[in-house]
Specification:
The chain is mostly helical and about 130 residues long. The chain is about 55% helix and about 10% strand. It folds into two domains: about 90 residues, Arc Repressor Mutant, subunit A (Orthogonal Bundle); about 35 residues, no CATH class. The N and C termini lie far apart (about 40 Å). InterPro entries: HTH_HxlR, WH-like_DNA-bd_sf, WH_DNA-bd_sf.
């Protein structure tokens, strides 16, 4: 894309859509919360506390932000104790192919750092092991 093409595209936009997306999902732990929901089916607050380095306060903040941005829905089940579950919205699920590509990028280009055996993987390799 030439610089003229880029300028023409940007004239149609209020702001860069890539930057805007990163403003929504780029805060620390947001993508990891989505990962755990998409890949592991996590939906309860305590399940998310298994995320590397997250604390309850930050988790609570991120879930509220994700709800505000239309990525997560919160469902409260009355009872003693009250049970709360979080679900990804269709909007959030639209990001699954993006997360898959991020995962694929790492396992193919940085296998020594992310794969236990140090060997490159495909998405099929990863998903068949679940």
């Amino acid at each position: 894309m030439s610089m003229g093409d880029y300028a023409a595209v940007m004239r149609q936009l209020k702001q860069c859509p890539i930057n805007y997306t990163f403003q929504i999902i780029g805060k620390k732990f947001t993508i990891l919360i989505m990962r755990n929901m998409m890949l592991f089916g996590h939906k309860h607050f305590n399940e998310f506390l298994t995320i590397e380095g997250i604390n309850p306060k930050t988790l609570s903040q991120r879930l509220k932000e994700m709800q505000k941005n239309g990525l997560v829905e919160r469902k409260v089940y009355p009872g003693t104790p009250v049970m709360i579950e979080y679900f990804l919205t269709e909007r959030a699920m639209a990001l699954k192919p993006v997360l898959d590509q991020l995962m694929l990028f790492s396992v193919q280009h940085y296998p020594q750092e992310v794969c236990k055996d140090g060997m490159p993987k495909t998405l099929e390799d990863l998903y068949k092991q679940q």
